[in-house]
Design goal:
Elements lengths: L2 H6 L4 H12 L1 H9 L9 H14 L6 H8 L2 H11 L5 E4 L5 E4 L8 E5 L10 H18 L4 E5 L11 H15 L7 E6 L1 H14 L17 E5 L10 H5 L8 H12 L7 H4 L19 E6 L5 H15 L3 E6 L6 H7 L7 H18 L1
Parallel strand pairs: 3-4, 3-5, 5-6, 6-7, 7-8
Antiparallel strand pairs: 1-2, 2-4
Length: 367
């Protein structure tokens, strides 16, 4: 039984009825969302996909357990995706329970370690996360000598409190280094909460968090870090929280709810590792010794926009001169991945800018 399935056993008949009753409202709510201001500049497929996501996020009688139940566990999703795309099912199960899924060949010469988004409470998804990683893997085979992509299937809140997810990210890093991966050939990446986890892992390397195992000693800085809509700040008073509440695919209240769930039981000492923007500026001194270059993509109309931009343009750019921040015009939260969910993956100009950056980064590694 998977970690998520353990949390799904409590779904009662009454809750299942509630799910069905809410779905009765789907046509009306869906049409309203479809013709909203947020979807004016989108294709019909993307408008439909984003409207469905917003519908799922705004059901007042649903809680995160219900959403998790509907999305299902990563356990069957990954092998189904691999088989559908004629990929080997390659899962690394570590002694501490940490799970890693390879999207494409398992290789240790050049690797992208990916942390998925979902507010720490939703699973790795086939239509967005896995499809996105598979597309990146195929494109880099064309432009470089190929790269291994491995996704961390971390435990989910509220059943597993933070910093469980950071402990598993650290275990994944230790595992890859023990397999012979050179940090200079390793790129850390993630979207939304996974983007925050990317920086949390680097903060742990610089300032080990006492409540989880110690980080490995790096023989060299990571090759790079690439993040999409990094959810590094829970500050609900920033302008973008109000400006973009009705434009983003996820409303402001949902971010607040997920932040509340993720923060449960988190101590003051652990807080900067959950919400990297909370870390004192001086804590980021030495980041240039941990990572070589940074790429960040942020959506113009996403709710957490200002928190992401302030962090990347602040403590990150201050230490990493080679920092690229791309603002996606009319882009929602994790816009690139939403495009894959809508069947439009690879059609975004910003997707190709990311491909170009990754290709340059790994070609730089091979020089």
């Amino acid at each position: 039984m998977s970690k998520l399935e353990q949390g799904q056993r409590g779904i009662s008949l009454a809750v299942r009825y509630k799910i069905i009753s809410e779905y009765v409202k789907l046509p009306y709510v869906f049409v309203n969302n479809f013709f909203s201001e947020a979807n004016k500049k989108r294709t019909w497929r993307r408008a439909a996909s984003d409207s469905l996501l917003r519908f799922l996020c705004t059901r007042p009688s649903w809680d995160i357990h219900i959403v998790a139940y509907m999305l299902g566990s990563t356990a069957p999703v990954y092998p189904r995706f691999a088989q559908k795309n004629k990929l080997d099912v390659l899962t690394d199960k570590l002694d501490d329970g940490t799970i890693l899924h390879w999207v494409g060949p398992r290789r240790y010469d050049r690797v992208v370690l990916y942390f998925h988004g979902g507010g720490y409470c939703l699973p790795l998804l086939a239509e967005s996360h896995l499809a996105f990683l598979h597309s990146l893997q195929r494109e880099l085979e064309k432009s470089t000598d190929g790269v291994g992509f491995v996704a961390l299937d971390y435990s989910l809140t509220p059943n597993f409190q933070y910093p469980t997810q950071l402990r598993e990210a650290n275990a994944a890093l230790v595992h890859l280094l023990e397999k012979g991966v050179d940090p200079a050939n390793l790129l850390i990446s993630g979207d939304s909460a996974g983007g925050a986890l990317t920086f949390a892992l680097m903060l742990h390397v610089m300032h080990p968090l006492a409540s989880i195992p110690a980080p490995p000693v790096l023989s060299s800085p990571f090759l790079g870090a690439a993040v999409i809509s990094p959810w590094v700040s829970f500050d609900s008073t920033l302008p973008s929280n109000f400006e973009n509440d009705k434009k983003d695919c996820v409303p402001a209240k949902v971010y607040e709810t997920m932040a509340f769930i993720a923060s449960a039981g988190v101590s003051d000492a652990e807080r900067p590792y959950l919400e990297p923007s909370c870390a004192s500026d001086v804590w980021w001194d030495g980041l240039e010794n941990i990572v070589g270059r940074v790429y960040a993509s942020v959506g113009e109309v996403e709710v957490p926009r200002d928190g992401s931009v302030n962090f990347i343009d602040g403590p990150v750019r201050k230490r990493i001169q080679d920092t690229t921040l791309m603002m996606e015009a009319n882009g929602t939260h994790f816009d690139m991945l939403n495009a894959f969910a809508a069947g439009e993956g690879g059609e975004s100009a910003h997707y190709w800018k990311l491909i170009q950056w990754l290709s340059e980064t790994f070609r730089q590694d091979s020089d």
